[in-house]
Backbone:
């Protein structure tokens, strides 16, 4: 009897669940959700061809160094790299002396207690230090950025779909609101203090355009620093910060594939040798 009751209860539960799903689907078909400005005007990221793309991709150290320069001169005043240490820069071609110089000359110093008084102070950065945050705390970050906390960029290329392409598209996607948008959605006007960008999910974000003009930085290698070039380079740099071991992973993957292919041939040869007499 208990089994029968349990079976009937299960059947009833499944029926109610199926009925709820059916009514939800029918309701969505008959009365679809109204179109929103975000759905109508949001764009997918533009394609970005980086040397690190694909299963055999490798970082172009010269490009990544240019991207680091853009981060240093344009982005570092607001955005942190909490998961990246100065010494990690050796992975993109800087030598030990250059890393020490970069760390020591970094505009923001590392918080540390004064050894004499015990009060909180700062000290020069060392190569082993992580990149220091530009703000002492979230309150200071909000106060300086229209009540918005600038996100840490260490893993931004992994946190967003399409990674580097998303970053590149966002940096080059600022514009005025299209007249067609305001005509179709009068209530979707960009609020005061926000900025319109069709590559951002809500179309409006607190960050002002960080890259505003050509030659905003002067590249050490002589490359022309157009707005498009700077956006590509900093996107490449942030792909590296999110995947610093990408090249070694690719190399290990190809080595494993080669080993498996050789192993398969050896296994097949052993199989043929062991069973040759039995087959014939």
Residues:
């Amino acid at each position: 009897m208990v089994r029968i009751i349990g079976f009937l209860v299960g059947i009833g539960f499944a029926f109610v669940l199926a009925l709820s799903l059916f009514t939800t689907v029918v309701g969505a078909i008959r009365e679809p959700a109204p179109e929103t400005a975000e759905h109508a005007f949001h764009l997918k990221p533009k394609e970005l061809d980086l040397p690190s793309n694909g299963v055999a991709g490798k970082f172009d150290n010269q490009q990544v160094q240019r991207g680091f320069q853009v981060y240093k001169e344009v982005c570092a005043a607001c955005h942190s790299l909490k998961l990246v240490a100065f010494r990690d820069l050796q992975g993109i071609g800087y030598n030990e002396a250059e890393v020490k110089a970069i760390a020591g000359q970094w505009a923001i110093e590392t918080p540390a207690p004064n050894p004499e008084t015990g009060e909180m102070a700062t000290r020069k950065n060392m190569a082993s230090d992580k990149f220091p945050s530009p703000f002492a705390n979230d309150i200071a970050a909000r106060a300086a950025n229209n009540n918005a906390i600038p996100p840490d960029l260490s893993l931004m290329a992994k946190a967003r779909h399409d990674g580097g392409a998303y970053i590149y598209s966002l940096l080059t996607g600022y514009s005025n609101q299209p007249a067609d948008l305001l005509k179709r959605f009068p209530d979707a006007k960009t609020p005061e203090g926000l900025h319109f960008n069709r590559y951002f999910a809500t179309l409006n974000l607190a960050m002002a355009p960080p890259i505003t003009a050509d030659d905003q930085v002067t590249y050490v290698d002589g490359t022309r620093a157009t707005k498009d070039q700077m956006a590509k380079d900093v996107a490449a740099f942030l792909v590296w910060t999110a995947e610093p071991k990408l090249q070694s992973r690719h190399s290990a993957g190809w080595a494993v594939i080669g080993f498996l292919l050789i192993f398969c041939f050896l296994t097949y040869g052993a199989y043929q040798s062991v069973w040759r007499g039995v087959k014939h």
